[in-house]
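1st attempt posting a full record on here, be nice pls
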Amino acid sequence: MMNVSMEKALVMVRQNDLERAERMRQLYAVEWVAPHLYDLVLNTEKLSVDAAASALVHMARRSEFKATVESKKKLHELLLASRIRAGLKARRATQNVDIDIQVTDQPRHFGRRSRYGGGKARRRASRITKQGYYES
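the predicted structure (as C-alpha cells):
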C-alpha cells in the first residue's frame, strides 16, 4: 500500500481521471462522464460498499440485464471495433487518422472518414484492418 498524503492522493486520482477520459475519447469516441452511457450510477459517498454491491447484484439478476444473443453480438462488434481503433492509434502511420469503424455482419465493410493524413493514411489504415490484425 502506498503511503501518500490526502493532497497527493487527490492529485493522483485527478490525473488518473484525465488519462482515462482521454483514452475513452481516443478509443471509443465518448465522454466517460456522459450519463447516457450508464444504466445505473451509485453514489458511494452516500452508500456503503456493501450496500452498493448488494444493489448491483440485485440489478444484475433482473431479466432486463440478462445477456441475449443480440446483446452478445453487439458487445462482440463493439469489442472488435475498439481493438481495431486501438491498433490504429498504436501505429505511428495511422495514429492521427480519424476513422469511423462500424462492425457488421457484412465481411470487409469499412466506413472511413479522415481528418488527418489524407488518402495515403486511409489506405494504410484500410490495409491494416483488412489484414485482420485485430480479430478476436
